Amino acid sequence: MPQRRAEVKSLRKNEVKRQRNRAERSALRTEIKKAKLAIEEKSEGLADQLSATAGWLDRAAQKHLIHRKKAARIKSQLARAAAAAGS
Hints:
Largest sheet: none
Number of strands: 0
Number of domains: 1
């Protein structure tokens, strides 16, 4: 257990951050799944869904939830999958 008041506060802050990061990572994974589902179904709103997912990935990388190159890699994979599904 923490010995000082500052350590107690730090513990509280870390728990709040952990909960927020978990929620945001979960939402990000959900968005990626939605994009993959839209690609599989070849839905009409595919471009909008890919754009929204790219925004989620960029924000997650900006907040350091995921690495920026991982965000770029996922966007690239989704774009390639969408192009392959379209042809």
